[in-house]
């Protein structure tokens, strides 16, 4: 089946039917085109359904049978909005197999643009992440009557069964939008609103904080989104916090993370293992227990966690009745505030009482003044 948006008086519609389209659903907002389309429907009995409606407000999925190909000579003022809706339907794969769409040439160039070009941006990322887009035809103004003031181009997009690289759509689109909303700024500035430790996250994804959004490839954006997604999940940073304090058994984590279910904890630990941030290991006898500990990559998260601690410290509220506080949580938090750099060669202890027990931070200045 074919979905045609904006058929007008039906010139393209006739061609689709004559070339053997099984069935065409034509959606036209302008009621003046209805008589001409009705004549075509009469000539191709049962193969053309005409709907006088706004394509932006119409659900077409119940009217068509797969495979569905979308063909449209779109009004330029709604073309980009329709394309983004078709590429971001809420679930993937979508209802369509391919899109063959007419755009203003500048928009078509944005769809197929590559990193480093002036046209490269959000539309290129969205289109190329989930489809294979290519410009198949360019048309000068004189190809139309009356001629527009711009050149046009036809873009053909074939959907992919799965996105090219794994990433959670909402997270990816948020990262891309933040980057390109201030495209001339370095990423450490344009993405700062996403996380206070954005420089560390960029470096973990193999991206220089001084790069700009237009320099990043699609796989780099996806890698950054995966990092943001993994650490942004509930309980994940709390697990990292616990393991920064030392190896923990599964039962230790369950006991210290109030409210986490066994299934959620197991899933978070599995994902962190898959990401190479934690590993399972056995303690030396006599304990001989299986524990979780941070890998080298996991330990590299310490500056990121400390940055979040310092940021959150500005909003710290007094302890509420019934709220749990572990002394070593405070020890980790205090450690985030101990500055690096030259210090006197002396030692001192910080004692932190909490809930009937006490944590001690031992601070020692080195002989080299650090």
TrEMBL record:
InterPro entries in the record: ArsR-like_HTH, HTH_HxlR, KsgA/Erm, rRNA_Ade_diMease-like_C, rRNA_Ade_Mease_Trfase_CS, rRNA_Ade_methylase_Trfase_N, rRNA_adenine_dimethylase, SAM-dependent_MTases_sf
Keywords from the UniProt entry: Cytoplasm, Methyltransferase, RNA-binding, rRNA processing, S-adenosyl-L-methionine, Transferase
One GO location term (cellular component): cytosol
Listed GO MF terms: RNA binding; rRNA (adenine-N6,N6-)-dimethyltransferase activity
Gene3D superfamilies, per the entry: Ribosomal RNA adenine dimethylase-like, domain 2 (1.10.8.100), Vaccinia Virus protein VP39 (3.40.50.150), Winged helix-like DNA-binding domain superfamily/Winged helix DNA-binding domain (1.10.10.10)
SMART domains in the record: rADc
Official protein name in the record: HTH hxlR-type domain-containing protein
PROSITE patterns, alphabetized: HTH_HXLR (PS51118), RRNA_A_DIMETH (PS01131), SAM_RNA_A_N6_MT (PS51689)
Pfam family for this entry, one: HxlR
Annotated HTH hxlR-type domain residues: 222-320
NCBIfam families in UniProt: ksgA
Organism this protein belongs to: marine sediment metagenome
């Amino acid at each position: 089946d074919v979905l045609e948006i904006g058929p007008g008086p039906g010139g393209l519609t006739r061609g689709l039917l004559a070339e053997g389209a099984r069935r065409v659903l034509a959606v036209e907002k302008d009621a003046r085109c209805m008589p001409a389309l009705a004549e075509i429907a009469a000539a191709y009995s049962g193969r053309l359904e005409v709907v006088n409606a706004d394509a932006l407000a119409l659900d077409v999925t119940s009217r068509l049978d797969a495979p569905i190909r979308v063909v449209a000579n779109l009004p330029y003022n709604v073309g980009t909005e329709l394309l983004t809706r078709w590429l971001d339907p809420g679930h993937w794969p979508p209802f369509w197999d391919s899109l063959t769409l007419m755009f203003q040439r500048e928009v078509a160039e944005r769809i197929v643009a590559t990193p480093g070009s002036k046209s490269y941006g959000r539309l290129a990322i969205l289109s190329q992440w989930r489809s294979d887009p290519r410009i198949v035809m360019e048309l000068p103004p004189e190809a139309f009557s009356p001629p527009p003031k711009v050149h046009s181009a036809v873009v053909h997009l074939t959907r992919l069964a799965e996105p090219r690289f794994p990433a959670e759509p909402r997270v990816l689109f948020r990262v891309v939008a933040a980057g390109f909303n201030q495209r001339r700024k370095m990423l450490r500035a344009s993405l700062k609103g996403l996380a206070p430790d954005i420089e560390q996250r960029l470096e973990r994804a193999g991206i220089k904080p001084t790069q700009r959004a237009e320099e990043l490839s699609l796989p780099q954006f996806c890698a950054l989104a995966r990092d943001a997604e993994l650490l942004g999940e509930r309980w994940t940073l709390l697990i990292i916090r616990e393991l920064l304090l030392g190896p923990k058994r599964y039962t230790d984590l369950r006991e210290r993370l109030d409210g986490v279910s066994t299934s959620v904890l197991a899933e978070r630990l599995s994902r962190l293992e898959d990401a190479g941030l934690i590993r399972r290991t056995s303690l030396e006898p006599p304990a001989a227990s299986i524990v979780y500990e941070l890998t080298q990559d996991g330990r590299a998260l310490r500056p990121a966690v400390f940055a979040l601690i310092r940021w959150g410290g500005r909003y710290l509220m007094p302890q509420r009745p019934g709220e749990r506080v572990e002394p070593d949580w405070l020890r980790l938090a205090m450690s985030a505030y101990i500055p690096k750099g030259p210090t006197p060669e002396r030692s001192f202890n910080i004692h932190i009482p909490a809930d009937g027990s006490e944590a001690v931070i031992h601070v020692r200045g080195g002989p080299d003044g650090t």
